[in-house]
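Predict the structure of Cytosol non-specific dipeptidase.
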Amino acid sequence: MEITELNPKIVWKYFHEITQVPRPSKKEGKIIAYLEKFAKEHNIAYKKDHVGNIVMTKPATPGYEDRVKVILQSHVDMVCEKNADTKHDFDNDPIRTIVDGEWLHADGTTLGADNGIGCAAQLAILASNDIPHGPLEALFTIDEETGMTGAMELKPGFLEGKILINLDSEDEGELFIGCAGGMGIIAEFKYNAVDAPKDLVWLRASVAGLKGGHSGGEIHCGLGNANKILTRFLYALDKSTTWSLAEISGGNLHNAIPREAHAVFGVKAADKAKVEALIKQLDADVRNEQKAVDPNVRVSLGEATAPSKVIDEKTKHALVRALYACPHGVLGMSHEIADLVETSNNLASIKQRDGVILVETSQRSSTTSLRNSASEMVSSVFELAGASVSVRDPYPGWKPNPDSAILKASADAYRKLFGKEPAVKAIHAGLECGLILDVYPDLDMVSFGPTLRDVHSPAERIEIKTVDLWWKHLLEVLKEIPSAKK
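Done. Here is the predicted structure for Cytosol non-specific dipeptidase.
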């Protein structure tokens, strides 16, 4: 079956169109052009702000003119991750989608349903003539995935609505009324590139086969972190023999749990058997540790080309210990909301370039003071190791409001449609709601979406049947919006 044959057809039509438009974070020019073309073709009024956020405006359908103006909101960018053996240029190539039973996924890349499916629903409502609704604004924000730049740059007066429905959640039947805030710490190790020893055997240690995933939504799942696993090996190597480190790399994005990592290093020929034994033992240990959640993990060793330069000994020693000491995973659970991760850290990426090794981490918490404390803890680890530290893009959380009117309307609509209670939750992942609320403090907000799994990884997929359920729910909510005269 083709994607455009799925129901609701109008939503899948626009999602398919969106998958054909390259839209990496910070490179949203093509999707912005697509949205502007859509607005012009459908005679929809729109405006674009200084960073590229777009808001389209549609008047109420007959009989709904008195309703409170609603803002529907999604972000246009996507996380760009692919399997090592997949050839794909995210700047130019369309996403190749595959209908696989009950799920839709991409061919070896992220799907971009986060948050392309939300954008598709907005476009479907804007393009339709038979959907009852009050006055609407459809807000499309840029660069949510690598800094929330779009939401951060919103200015007063750009929006008029009093209710905001965010379409960036990932579990059908769940209504979200709060989210974590976040920030990042980037540690910079400057090293001296010294001549590589001539009498060493050069090897490449690799960690692969991990699922990866969203560093907010899936941080509690115990998924393997390739950077932490690689560091276990390098630390054991450093404790047991003399060696030289030429290259280290792992992970890619601050909001994705790293799936792959590698290091190129040299040892004396007499120590090669010892290194092979270390790798074999770590591979067995990690497979056993991760068998329930990451069964395809593997740690392997191969030959490498002899480099001309290596990282100086002092930096190598400090780097390995800092990476090993840096926390990863859940740091604390909420005492107020059951099963909610309150605070976490993701050891996200290690990148080497021009005499510098950059280590990027991401801290999240629903409590601002604990977010800051986690960042200070991570900073301390790297500062003790001699790295310089900088803070990246702090953003606020969204404090839950259980008395929200749009929450009540959304819950009533769900009960009316499906005869059961929706779950009301907060989420550890970051949503743009907190930032938007900073600029528009009187907004009443809720977030809901269809079911997605393994977002921010090439295993990202969307459960097809939940899109229809979510769509019906969204349309029912629009009918339940209260009158502005009350």
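The mean pLDDT is 96.
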